[in-house]
Amino acid sequence: MSPLLVWLAGVTWDGIRGTDRHLVTALSRHVRVLWVDPPQSPLRAGRPGSVLLGTEVAGVSRLRTVGLPGPDRAGIDRVTYAWLGRALRNAVPAGQPIVLVSTSPHPPLDLIESRRRIYYPTDDFVAGAVLMQKSPRRIASLEARRVHEADVVGAVSQVILDRLGVTSSFVLPNGCDPDAFSRTDELPPHPLVRLPLPVAGLVGQLSPRVDVSLLEAVAHSGMSLLLVGPRQRDFQTSRLDRLIALPNVQWVGARGFEELPGFLRAIDVGITPYVVDGFNRASFPLKTLEYLSAGRPVVSTPLPGTSLLDCPWVRTADDTASFVDRVRDAATSTVDRDAVRRFAAAHAWSERAHEFLRVSGIEPAYAPRR
User: Short name of one Pfam family for this protein (predicted)?
Assistant: First the structure.
């Protein structure tokens, strides 16, 4: 009997479409997956202890549970994960072999008997703890337990593994969905965009991860700036208000993944203006590969993950003046967009899924499922 991949996700299925959902969707073409949402507070999701099991897409079932208020708080988490473990055992048929993966430091890896336990953090949760309004010391303690419980540890970057100090490990960076962006240049620009060329674009949340001074500098250089994504509450409110009020800047708010090709059609260069701190240095920004999938060159701040791409269509700059110069140059230079897309296709989520099955120790005999 082939195993069931139980995926303890760091986000809900219908939340922001990030590493968990993209990778699970690709993996579901090879193995059956039970996606497990993080337990929710009853203030958001209903009666404590309630359980909902359903199917999201072919090959992916979804388990949702409701804990007590503050389900991940110290002490409360014992009840939360006792309930989740019971829900898991009831949801999985007796005798079903399981491979369990967690991308969050919160759930214990012994919630259900499994053939293999994998801890695969998608961010440096200790470096980002303050940003997430959590205790770095507690997160470090939780991660140490997950590493101890795991048979195999992986991460999206070597920076994370170096901090965890593990030896039985693998690096699996983020990927992209080339098919979703392959026809970008055949589409008209999204009808909401009303900016003169050239246009630099940022796709993603406006949060403390972003260096607002770089956005301001691009806008003040006279180039158009398109911002696609939600704004984090209380982040640089007045400063962002002033930026968005400029005539050559347009913010379109949060948009569905299926709308992104139309917005990327409207830009000439994608930007990844991340603050260079411990949290971002450990990341592998999804947006960079998505820009490339659409055939757009990229300018980024210098991050280890970005430098690993090592291609002529990704330029980095470590000061404001250089960043603006490289954005302008990339936006006005001729680019072989088909070549850019071919490069991005080598980093497709389908490729990442094959690699995950291999390096995580899940037997190749379990793939393909269909």
Answer: Glyco_trans_1_4
Q: What is the pLDDT of residue 363?
A: 61
Residues 43 and 169 in one domain: yes
SS percent in the chain: helix, strand, coil, step 5:
35, 20, 45
Give 219-263 as a DSSP string: HHTT-EEEEESPBPTTSSHHHHHHHHTSTTEEE-----GGGHHHH
Token code pair at residue 248: 């050559």
Residues with Cβ < 8 Å from 49, sequence gap 6 or more? 65, 66, 67, 83
Q: What is the mean pLDDT of residues 3-28?
A: 94
Contact present, 34 and 6 (Cβ < 8 Å): yes
Residues 90 and 204 both lie in one domain: no
Would you state the pLDDT for residue 222?
96
| Domain count along the chain | 2
CA distance 223 to 236: 22
Contact 263, 250 (CB under 8 A): no
Which of 288, 262, 258 has its CA nearest to residue 185? 262
Sheet hosting strand 298-300, strand order edge to edge: 249-251, 224-228, 199-203, 269-272, 298-300, 314-316
Instruction: Kindly report the CATH number assigned to the domain that includes residue 95.
Output: 3.40.50.2000
- pLDDT score of 47: 85
Half-sphere exposure of 232 (CA within 13 A, CB side): 12
Cα-based distances in Å from 14 to 9, 100, 107, 205, 257: 12, 21, 19, 16, 12
The conformation of residue 36, written as its DSSP 8-state character, comes to E
Instruction: State the amino acid at position 61 in one-letter form.
Output: S
pTM of the model: 0.92
CA–CA distance, 5 with 272 (Å, rounded to integer): 33
Q: Which residues form the domain of 106?
A: 4-175+348-366
In this structure, the answer to whether residues 137 and 191 fall within a common structural domain is no
How many other CB atoms are found less than 10 A from the CB of residue 197? 11
